[in-house]
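Class, discuss our next protein.
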Amino acid sequence: MRILHISSSDVTGGAARGAYRIHQSLLQAGVASRMLVANKCAGEESIVLPDLSRRLDHRLWRRSRRQLISIEERRIARSHQPGAELFSTANSSYVGCWDGALRNASVLNLHWVAGFVDYPSFFAALPPGKPLVWTLHDINPLTGGCHYAGPCEKFTSRCGACPQLSSKRERDASRRGFDVKAKAYARLDADRVVLVAPSTWIAGEARRSALLGRFRVECIPYGLDLDVFRPLDRDAARKAFGIQAHERIILFVSDYLHNRRKGLDLLLSAIGSIEAKADVVLASVGNGVTPEIGGIRSLHLGRVDSDRVLSMIYNIADVFVIPSREENLGQTAIEATACGCPVVGFAVGGVPDIIEEGRTGFLAAPFDIRQLRDAIEAAIASRGAFAAACRLRAERLFGLDALARAYQSLYLETLKGQDQAGAYLGLNMRKRSFENVGRL
């Protein structure tokens, strides 16, 4: 069994890290797994770049196509609502590079592919009957271009007059993207395609999708290396970061701190209403300007690429807050849980899948600032009592072993048929769900 993961990047960004961890879990389980990416940062032989022709006419054609796509992207950017999530077109300059890679794999696993997969040419090159698994890191595969739709539900019928593009025209960029994807997906055999949802929320969105709703959906949560993300000596970790014994650390982590969807502004409002601020410290990780709030010390640690350093940071925290307006299954919250740190967030998207209310953290009603503040204070007070339950939940649901077993069984099922795969593994595969996947 040879698995090919297709992702725009190998390790840059949350979706890429999720794909990379799936790939690594399979390698550790002895599965022949490779990643095909447009942007490679990790120096591993199992991660490869597309085989692009070096012929001059082909290079000139790709350059011309990139320029045309860039013009379209600039046009979209001019109409894009401030603070709105990313909007991606369905086209790319990676054309004519798929045939060999697709043919040699037993199973294809698509991930976050914006700017890499050219929908018309990729799905045209897909060999008939080739099993395809698509891990949904956001809802872009379901829409005409947006990655998170907010209150808009046009992806359940047909995109157009996109609110994120401030558009009143039905035949706008979102409609064009939607129609390109619809035509590409029409080539797919429903019996050979499985969508994997890391959260129950995105599983529900996939089932409501006009584009992909005809395909089967399975729920497999993200996993991570529990030997890296684990409880450490808290006193030593806090000393290393200059944290005093009396200080209460509230942690926020995001690739880009001021991405509106991630909700830092909501967190700042909640912290600002805490009465006893003297010993509160807001620690943050990610790109962006250091967040400031009156009366509270700010400890901004910048961008951190090392998982081991991130593990130390989760261990210094009294509470990790994920105040997202929309979220699939936030890997930062999973990482914090594995380190024994309670998690607080709004009950949106996949956040309720991570938090076991009253045992590993607390959920606040969307977007109730007072409830968020109270939940933060309660979690800080319960840090010691919650630590063991957090770790146990991570071991049950989010380990790499469970991740590899779930994907292996799904791949075998796509190759051999459901009954044969179930007999091979001694499993009833129809019962795969978020809560039981860790027990497979």
